[in-house]
Amino acid sequence: MLHIFRRRISRSIAGVVNTRAASSQATPRGLNAVLQKNSDDVVITFAKRTALGRARKGQLKDVPVDEMLTALLKATFAQTHLDPSKIEDICVGTCHPPSPLYVSRAAALAAGIPSHVPITTVNRLCSSGLMSIRTIAHAIQAGEITLGLAIGVESMSLNPRPTPELVDTVSSHSKAADAIQPMGWTSEMVALDYNVPRAKQDEYALLSHTRANEASSQGILAEEILPIEIRGTTISVDDTIRPNVTMESLTALKPAFPQWAPATTTAGNASGIGDGAAICIMTTRERAEKEGMPIIGKWVGAAVVGVEPKHMGVGPIDAIPRVLEQFGLKKADIDLWEINEAFASQFAFCVEELGIPIEKINVNGGSIAITHPVGMTGTRQVATGLAELRRSGGHLLCTSMCVGSGMGAAGIFVNEATK
Asked: NCBIfam families, alphabetically (predicted)?
């Protein structure tokens, strides 16, 4: 009996090794391989976001996450005519609402999604929206489902960042203590330790504000926004974009965190806090083609890294090379970058350290101008990036963001939509 058992174990191990080898061989490497179309590709058939609202002052300030989610789902079904009963799983990226799975499940049911459709939530802080896409993509790749929804949502008005609490034995560890510090402190640490002066931060901020204002006035942002109805009112335009921002007005702003040297972060060169939600419908290429769903993009993959907590903002510097190497790509292969602007201090340092042309990054403005609802942003960047590639005709999108507590994440997507 022992030799039979050993033989079975040996076969089992061999099967695992062969499966891993097959998986490794299936990973596309190089631009041509990434752009190739295969029946088992994970594709995106719909990617939209709500209009954004200023936290505590804007159009969504009194709208809790469950109400926002229900409105987003109803609007999605109305526009796509997707039968909710066909959905096989849902993942919601969100950070701070209490009992997030309960409220997400309730919102799905209220939107008309049948009770047999499961749901989960994921919280990796600023990358939560990207992680929702990653979760659904992995489930499809594993053969567990063939159709799912990835959502990012946050109400920073009603659910601001809670203060993390540590026991003394943990908080006495310096890096552990750094990991729970306010994000403004990490911005100042990057500015101090990597020598990013206030003037440079304001220059990058002005670019974000200017680009967002131009994109909004030209109707470009409207292409990525899905109007939603809240309490009888249709919400379809961002109320977060500030007009008439100049270098003079940015320079005049007082430090937002004077308690931390060098005190260079201001309300004008940091991402705003706000409210909003975004959604991607994901399936296999085979199913999309069979059921006549439009294919607008393809999921390639993502990478997540850890960095020093006090320098949280530098996460993209490690995450971007990791995801590019994973798929045998070069920076020159990427047509468009959506790199989250948590703070101008970290954004400026990341852009210059990575050596990416600013003409390819956040071409319609970023979170400094349009705001950063933390659970939403990772999904929003995909809706934003794919919409821009559809206009420009480019092929590859790379999204990235720093992540609270000291991490970074990045994702690669292929544009498959036509103008």
From this structure: AcCoA-C-Actrans
Distance CA 409, CA 165 (A): 25
Q: One-letter amino acid identity for 287?
A: R
**Where in the sequence numbering do the catalytic residues fall?**
126, 372, 402
Domains and CATH numbers, the chain: 34-159+274-297 (3.40.47.10), 174-221+299-415 (3.40.47.10)
State the Cα–Cα distance between residues 296 and 418, nearest whole angstrom: 8
For residue 313, what is the DSSP state?
G
Tokens of 373: 């609802």
Q: Write down the pTM of the prediction.
A: 0.93
For residue range 171-216, what is the model confidence (pLDDT) as tens digits?
999 999 999 999 999 999 999 999 999 999 999 999 999 999 999 9
Give the E-state strand segments of 50-183 in sequence order: 53-54, 89-93, 119-122, 147-155
Smallest Cα–Cα separation from 52: which of 132, 183, 152, 187? 152
Angle subtended by helix axes 128-141 and 377-392, to nearest 10: 80
Q: Residue 305's beta-bridge partner residues? A: 408
